[in-house]
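FORM 12-B: Structure-to-Sequence Request
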């Protein structure tokens, strides 16, 4: 019997992105949309499209992801941004590798489909964090796990505490410390859906704020 996986989508004002994004979710994944203080119709749109909706009033990427993971019931959990910038169709081979026991976690490595998709300030910030991680921990990854699939209980056992944008960096650090095997998969990185705006890469200020979150969890 194929493995089931709950797909957590942390969302804030992503109503315009959800129809196209959820239409691309492959079989075997049940969608949990975490509405993290949206002022648009994110929750209503998600429900109409058949997703489970979880409300999380605490602001922050980590808070939204943690709410989705704790609400999940499947043995495996996946996380991808709710802005439509990455195709969830690529999750299937990642889930197969984790479910087969080949690896503990599969993570995505963004590959921009054209110039300008990934602003220079966001790319530079990620590169600096990853350089530091490789130097201090030896972890061999080239992106900050923007997409990931792993066992739900394995993830909860890591006891991640960051509730802001440092969450994926803390995940990589603690996964390395726990002896997880991690494999990267290339994922196409598209412009986010029209009418939505990135809280991270949409401005230099947003990138700087995120970098501070990263710094708090670096070893």
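FORM 12-B RESPONSE
SEQUENCE OUT:
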């Amino acid at each position: 019997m194929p493995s089931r996986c709950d797909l957590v989508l942390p969302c804030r004002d992503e109503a315009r992105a959800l129809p196209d994004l959820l239409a691309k979710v492959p079989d075997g994944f049940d969608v949990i949309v975490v509405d993290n203080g949206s002022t648009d119709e994110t929750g209503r749109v998600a429900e109409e499209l058949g997703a489970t909706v979880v409300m999380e009033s605490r602001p922050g990427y980590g808070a939204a992801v943690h709410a989705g993971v704790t609400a999940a019931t499947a043995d495996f959990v996946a996380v991808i941004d709710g802005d439509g910038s990455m195709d969830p169709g690529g999750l299937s081979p990642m889930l197969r590798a984790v479910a087969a026991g080949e690896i503990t976690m599969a993570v995505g490595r963004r590959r921009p489909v054209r110039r300008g998709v990934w602003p220079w300030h966001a790319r530079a910030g990620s590169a600096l964090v990853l350089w530091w991680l490789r130097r201090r921990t030896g972890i061999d990854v080239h992106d900050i796990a923007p997409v990931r699939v792993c066992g739900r209980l394995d993830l909860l056992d890591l006891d991640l505490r960051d509730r802001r944008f440092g969450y994926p960096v803390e995940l990589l650090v603690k996964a390395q410390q726990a002896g997880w095997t991690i494999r990267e998969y290339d994922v196409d990185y598209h412009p986010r859906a029209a009418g939505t705006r990135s809280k991270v890469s949409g401005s230099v200020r947003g990138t700087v704020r995120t970098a501070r979150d990263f710094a708090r969890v670096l070893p």
